[in-house]
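name: query_chain
kind: protein
chains: 1
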Amino acid sequence: MFKILALDLDGTLLNPEHKISEKNKKIIHELNEEGARIILASGREPNSILPFNHELGIKDFVIGFNGGIISDWTGENIIYEKKLDSKIAENIIKNCQEGDICTFVFIKNKIYVDSKKKEGYNIFDSYTASGLNKVDNIYKFIDDNNYWDRIGKLLLCDDNKVLASFKDKMEKIFGSKLSFGFSLPYFLEIWNPEVSKGKAIQVISEKLNIDRKDIMAIGDGENDISMIKFAGLGVAMGNALESVKKEADYITLSNREDGVEYVIKKYWRGE
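structure:
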């Protein structure tokens, strides 16, 4: 019997219009009423996840920054947090500026971006509820405010080929000191290698004394692979990246087809 449902947001629980469908909402509400623990796990900052908790009526843990932060349902009490290495973050942002790559810097519940990168932040704006803090020069702003040791994660926005090339370059420099993942073809996320959604789900399951076999995890991006592998049943969306589908126990329908509801009915409900 499953006891925890771990859900990615973008590309998973949310449809292509970034909304929770009525079918998904209904089935999750039912599970919540039955006492299941519903954990929303995203690369987003907690403030951008909490509105979905409220919409679903969930008062449970929230996983942000790909597992870099766990908060309670209010977003005010931090249960767990792990940030990027300050020197590495500085090096990456400097390289991004030299390569003219739009860089979003996540610090707790705030997101900073270079005001000159209009195309990049226009794309990203629909994925956050926190609002973007636009600054004249992202490197100078972080440096002037001495924020290097406060960065939870970085998100780069550009053409997929540009980002893939940048990822290869950084991996050669830093190796295992960084974790990378494409949440979308034009979004490359960078975070502490000790951080993962899988690790965060493990922290929560141990806190709740729930065995991993009683966890269902559903996702679509590379940042979801760790929780898909950790869970008793790891599910990839029909719209997931091929690398994610290869690691899943089951592939459900796409987020346009209410894939979350479908797999819950099939494996949780046994319908």
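note: The mean pLDDT is 92.
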